[in-house]
Design a protein that fits this description.
The chain is of the alpha/beta class. The protein is about 30% helix and about 20% strand. The chain has a single domain, classed as Rossmann fold (3-Layer(aba) Sandwich). The longest helix is centred in the C-terminal third of the chain and has 17 residues.
Length: about 280
Amino acid sequence: MAEPAIEGFTASDGYTWRYRRFGASGRFETRRAIVVGLHGIQSHSGWYLESSQSLADAGYDVSFLDRRGCGLNDRDRGDAPGFRRLLDDVAEYLATLPRPRFVMAISWGGKLAVALQRRHPGICDGIILIAPGLRPRVKPGVGERLRVIAARVVARRRMFPIPLNDPELFTDNAERQGFIRDDPLMLRRATARMLFENGRLDVYLRFAARRVSVPVLLLLAEHDRIIDNAATRRFVERFPAVDRTVNEYAGAHHTLEFEPGGPPFVEDMLRWLAERSLERPAAAL
């Protein structure tokens, strides 16, 4: 597997965040489309190398962004000034890319992909939601939420554990559980401000759902212990988008990337992308 390039992007507020870029295979005369990846609340672009490389091998240029304060980004670790700033980070980067451009959002990143459709309508040509965190099973307890709210007022950068630190929640693959357990870039704690903004984003999503008119591919894992699949399906059914495709993978767990046989969704995703980008090949970057 080829090593992706590590590149940086400076947002309009001056923060420079980093991302992994997988260049489309040179076997194709033109790139088929651009795919921008968004990771979960704790993961980072380094978790999704196999699926990203598969996209690149099929002619798609992939930029997998590390959210500010996460992954490759050491500055303001675990913090975010606001959920709208996170949305603007993605939109500002997308605006620099040719069309067609798609957002591939995993777990918590799914919240951003959906919310983008309200804050920046028309910014992308379709969204791929992989076990999206739109309706989570795992949440902080009432006492922890009250402590976060209090800290947000008096000590907004106080750190709190993210309630997903058990590797078994992500995958049943023992090898990948070890990877998660030992991953130095995994985000295990977040600031009161970041966690409070997560709650505000949940409220925003209630209204954003009505604004999703682009094609949607929803990919779910049958044995997901983090995401409520039934509630997620109902949420996506509220989208006005006519073009909606849903696949659920039998026997799979939350982080589909870590399934023992490799990501089971790659062929389905490539087929979906090809059908929606055939008429608009991406210009050279």
